[in-house]
Known about the structure:
The chain has 5 helices and 6 strands; from the N terminus they run E-H-E-H-E-H-E-E-E-H-H. The chain is α/β, with parallel strands linked by helices. It has one domain (2-197): Maf protein (Alpha-Beta Complex), CATH 3.90.950. A 6-stranded mixed beta sheet has the order 2-1-3-4-5-6. Helix 1 packs across helix 5 and helix 4 crosses helix 5 (179-197). Its cofactor is Mg(2+). It comes from Scrofimicrobium canadense. InterPro entries: dITP/XTP_pyrophosphatase (IPR020922), ITPase-like_fam (IPR029001), RdgB/HAM1 (IPR002637). This is dITP/XTP pyrophosphatase.
Amino acid sequence: MKIVVATGNAHKLSEVRAILSPVADSIVPLSDFDAPEPVEDGITFAENALIKARSACEITGLAALADDSGITVDVLGGAPGVFSARWSGHHGDDAANRNLLLAQLSDVPDRHRQAAFVSAIALVLPDGGETVVEGRVEGMLTREARGSGGFGYDPIFIPTGHEQTTAEMTAEEKNALSHRGIALRKLLPIVTELTLGD
């Protein structure tokens, strides 16, 4: 089974490959195709993941997988949420997004800095079948960035039960507990069954 991944993010692509490669025949990025980016105008992670996966499936004719993910902060009512990648006003400026979020929380005591990484992953098939799974990791936000691994908000997020930020962990450690990893492992049996049916 060949799967196209609707992302331009190399980190996300490598995480998908690390978990699904054993059961998928081939995993290719959407950048291999001449495909315009759809407008992500959903108000939930699941809606945006489906928008991207449906578009990629329609354009390529292949099974398409798309992730929409971000960080939700309790004291901000779940924000940044679907706006995580452009929280500072510029899409994909990780440092600016982190710095703005930390500034917004500067007066928030440590005991109230609860947050969660959330990932919704949609798998859309050429026959019209659709599956959405979600992964969630609870944790706390630090007061400054720590670690050089990962991307996005990894340097300021400590998963519950750990002392390191996800940016201080190895790729293997992060994949074992990440929100995207959790969601992808939920997809494993589905992709396995589909591959066996090919």
